[in-house]
Predict the structure.
Amino acid sequence: MKKNPERSQKIAFFFLLLANLLIVVPVGLIIVIIVAKGFPALTWEFISQMPRQGMRAGGIFPAIIGTIYLVGGAILFALPIGVLAAIYLCEYATHSRMSRVVKLAIVNLAGVPSVVYGLFGLALFVVFCKFGVSILSGALTLGIMILPIIITASREALESVPPAFREVSLSLGASKWQTIRNIVLPNAIPGILTGAILGLGRASGETAPILFTVAAFYLPRLPSSVFDQVMALPYHLYVISTQVPNVDEKIRYGTALVLLLLVLFMNSVAILIRNKFRKQKRW
Amino acid sequence: MNAKIVVDKLHLWYGDFLALKQVTTQIAPRRITAIIGPSGCGKSTLLRVFNRMNDLVEGVRMSGEVRVDGENILLPETNVVALRKKVGMVFQRPNPFPLSIYENIVFGPHIHQQLKKSELDAIVEQSLSSVSLWLELKDKLQKSALGLSLEQKQRLCIARLIAVKPDVLLMDEPCSSLDPQATARIEELMRELKHNYTIVIVTHNMQQAARVSDDTGFMLLGELVEFDRTEKVFTKPADKRTEEYITGRYG
């Protein structure tokens, strides 16, 4: 048979295009369906009121607040630890046995199913540390879950800072720590924030870890301390979709839409900060 | 005159590889000393001994003595930060930080001491003036240093180093990424700077060594084959290998 490069090229392009469509279509459908079905529920009352009538009416305000608290707490815990650990791994202990062990631990941590984190959080924070089923336990559990994401992203960010910058800084008589503080970290911040964004998204969507450690089935009031339980959007969505009969579809999709918007909002803030730093760096 | 840097039976290993063999020499103050030799002969390695930049390489060992102002800098208790403040380095590729011109200059002074804005301003003006950049750049100090030409960047790097007030300037092929005109101007700058600084320059460009330096050392396979006044090395080399190199038989 004669070779026909034109035709085989067309066939190849067709499949490449198909693969792309297969990615875009489900994403588009998810957004369209959730927005179409959830948008009518989006009223000021819905996002600012307590749920009423066994969650069949009223708003989802406590779940929104709960998710913000949990995600905020998880980032507050995981970001400093993750960044400090990454600095140590990259700058101080590059080839030591310790760093190999830690790197292995991080890879494994990243592969642990989220439900196992939930059980772990229950055993460690809720029971052993006696934090109870509380925001603190939930935030710490989520924090540990996103730690590998943050460490990995931070390490990549630190490693991508050109070695020449470190060399110059040291050659000017800066100590290693001054070099890290003044040169390496500022140039790594955009990458570190990318890790934080990924962590945010992951933490706000996970249901299993908070199910064990913090999430309340139905709690129509705001928490008064970190030792309180809260409602959270992912779990609330599960509850009103499967556990409570006769919930209006509009409320379910409205909740999903709010969760999406919340993640979108938090990501946008982080992306804005990242771009502000990125503007300064060009090499 | 007392030597600024004295190298005494220096050996250096990268792992099992002996990169410097029995190097012994003296570098005079306020002169330009060129170190020449083919690629891989150890000239950059020797330069990086003087400010202990080789410490960054894993598996480096040294024996012998290197004294700067009479102090052996190879001792483990040497304050490397203070040494590098005194013995500064200009790199092969101009490497300003991705910061403004102003921030590049004040980086060194800023990490070494607390200074007022007016003092920092004065340092910036002095440093840029000493590399003849002040008139060109005084109105765009807050612009990014990455927008400068290669020659301006290299001058800026020298200014950034001068701002730390070193005694010795180590230059590792400082002109290798510049065109001939820019190279000539940087060489002119080096001649001006030698009135205040001891300069050691590594170069693969023999003409440059002949043009700019007062003393020249020729290295081959980790050995310092010959070290003498530049005109002597280039006109009446004592060693046959030096003669072969400068007449272009290898490298």
Chain B has a mean pLDDT of 92. The interface with chain A takes residues 51, 53, 56, 58, 81-82, 84-85, 88-89, 91, 93, 95, 97-99, 107-108, 111-112, 144, 146, 157, 160-161, 164 of chain B (CB under 8 Å).
